[in-house]
Amino acid sequence: MKGQRSGPWVVDASATSGALLVLLMLWAVAAPAHASAPAAESATPTRSMGTDSSTQTDESEDYFHWQTVKDLVGSVVAAAVGGWREGNGGWRGLEVGFIRGVQEIWVIFGPGGKLHPAYFLEHFHGHIMVEGVLLLIIAYLFLQSTFKPKPHREEPLTDKEITQLCKEWQPEPLVPQVPEDDKVHSRIISSYEDKYVVADGKRALNLLSHNFLNLANTPEMLAVASTTVQKYGVGSCGPRGFYGTIDVHLKLEEELAQFMGTDEAIIYSYDIATVSSIIPAFANRKDVLIIDECCGYPIQQGATLSRAAVHVCKHNDMADMERIMIMVEEEAKKEKRPLNRRIVIVEGIYASNGNLSPLDKMYELKEKYKYRLVVEESMSFGVLGENGRGAVEHWGLKPSDVEVVCGSMGNALGSVGGWCVGTTEIVEHQRLSGSGYCFSASLPPYLATSASQSLCAMSQPEGKARMAQLRKNAASMRKMLANIPDEDIKMVEHALNKAVQQVIQ
Amino acid sequence: MAHKRTPSYVNLNKNTNWLSTPAVWAWYLGTVFLSWLVISAILDDAGLAWTYVHLVHGVVTYYLLHYCKGGVEEDQGKYDLLTFWEQVDSQVYGTRNRKLFTLMPVALFVLATHGTDFRKQPLGLNLVVVLVLLIAKLPALHKVRFFGINKY
Question: Chain A window 466-485: which residues touch B at a Cβ cutoff of 8 Å?
Answer without folding.
Answer: none
